[in-house]
Design goal:
Largest sheet: none
Oligomer: single chain
Distance between the termini: 95 Å
Strand content: under 5%
Order of helices and strands: HHHH
Helix content: over 70%
C-alpha cells in the first residue's frame, strides 16, 4: 500500500470517526430512551450500529480496498475524540436549529394548506349547501303555492258537487268514523314510540 493511499485512509477514517460522533448525537436526539429494557430500542440500536459499520467499511473499501490495519482503528478513535472535543457543541446547535427550521417549515406548510386549500373548499361547500337549500326551499314554496291555487278551487267545486248531489249529508255522517280512525292511528303511533 502506497503512502498516499495510507494518508487518504487515515484522513477518511478521521472523518468517519467525526461522522460516527455526529451520528450518535443525532440518533440520541431522535431516539426515545427508556429506563427499562425494551426490544424495539434494542433492535434500533443494533440496526444503527450495523449501518455505521457498513458506512465505515464502504469508505474504507473506497480508499484502500477494504484493508483493515491497526492505524485505521486509531484514526477512527482520533476522529471521534476530535468531534467530542471541538465539533460537538457546534454540531448540536446546528442540529437543533435544523430541527426547529424543519418543524417551522412543516407548520408553515400545514398552515398554508389549511388557509389555501381547506378553508376555501369548506367555504365553497357551505356556499353550495346554502344555495341548494335555498333552491329546495324556493321550489317547495312554489309547488305548495301552485297546489293551493289548484286545490282550493277544486275543493270548492267538490263541496258544490256534494251539495247538489246530496252526498254532503253522508260525508258529515261519516266524519265520526274518520275521527275514530285518526285516533286509532295516533294511538298506534304512540305505542310504537
Amino acid at each position: 500500500m502506497s503512502l498516499s493511499v495510507q494518508l487518504y485512509t487515515m484522513l477518511s477514517m478521521i472523518a468517519m470517526g467525526s461522522y460516527i460522533g455526529a451520528a450518535i448525537d443525532t440518533y440520541h436526539r431522535f431516539s426515545k430512551r427508556r429506563s427499562s429494557f425494551h426490544w424495539f430500542v434494542a433492535c434500533n440500536d443494533v440496526m444503527f450500529w450495523l449501518m455505521q459499520a457498513l458506512v465505515v467499511f464502504y469508505v474504507l473499501l473506497q480508499t484502500n480496498h477494504g484493508e483493515i490495519r491497526f492505524y485505521v482503528f486509531l484514526a477512527l478513535i482520533c476522529g471521534y475524540a476530535a468531534y467530542q472535543a471541538m465539533l460537538r457543541p457546534f454540531y448540536r446547535g446546528l442540529l437543533e436549529r435544523c430541527i426547529m427550521l424543519t418543524v417551522s417549515i412543516y407548520k408553515g406548510i400545514v398552515t398554508l394548506f389549511r388557509y389555501l386549500v381547506m378553508k376555501p373548499v369548506t367555504f365553497i361547500l357551505k356556499l353550495l349547501y346554502s344555495l341548494c337549500m335555498m333552491i329546495v326551499t324556493g321550489c317547495t314554496a312554489v309547488i305548495l303555492f301552485l297546489l293551493r291555487l289548484v286545490l282550493v278551487p277544486l275543493r270548492g267545486l267538490a263541496l258544490l258537487l256534494l251539495k247538489w248531489t246530496g252526498l254532503l249529508t253522508y260525508v258529515k255522517k261519516s266524519e265520526p268514523i274518520f275521527a275514530k280512525i285518526k285516533e286509532f292511528i295516533k294511538s298506534m303511533r304512540k305505542k310504537k314510540e
